Amino acid sequence: MKKMGKKSLFCGVLATALLVSGMAYAAPAIKLMVDGKEVKSDAQAQIINGRVFVPARALAESLGGEVQWDQKDKIVKVKSNASQQNGAITSKDAYVIEDQKALISLPSEWKDKIKVEKKTNEVTFQYVPKNKAVKPEFFFSVLIINKTVWDKDEYADTGLFTVLGMQDGKVYALQTPSEAPYLEKPESPEFKESVDMLNHLRQSIQFMFIK
After folding, report:
1. pTM (predicted TM-score)
2. Quick one: signal sequence residues (predicted)?
3. Structural domain contains residue 1
């Protein structure tokens, strides 16, 4: 396997950064470049609401990585030299949204702290406390909504949803709770941990189309 240099690693990190300043706008075709060479992909990189979305498989493979589908756990695993050579890159688990068309990456240390439930056009994530005597609470969800319905019902105007991306006439939107979990017990460890996780989620969520 080809060893990656610093330029490759920098490009990978830069291209997958999903939170940058700016407003949504129409832009010309975006070229995905690695070490000065254009990466070809069936899916087009996009900038939506200040977030950069890139095709995960094309980027990973161009950096010498490998994309694997774990049928048992229903997650996509992306392995690359970058994760092995540079300890600054945090390991993440990727959860597939809507039949392997998209994925959302979360810190791997959250694996035992969340429960995933898939419904039609919705994937819900619940926060699971370490204390089993405390019931799980709604953490966040990813909704898949037809673009015409999204516009007609004015979802964007509610302030409750964040657009993650758009593909095939569908809007992928993040919904977080209207109030913090365990708000009635602000001194509890569950309240503190869930709020910290929500803040991390809002600041560094990673969402990608893989088809």
Report:
1. 0.57
2. 1-26
3. no
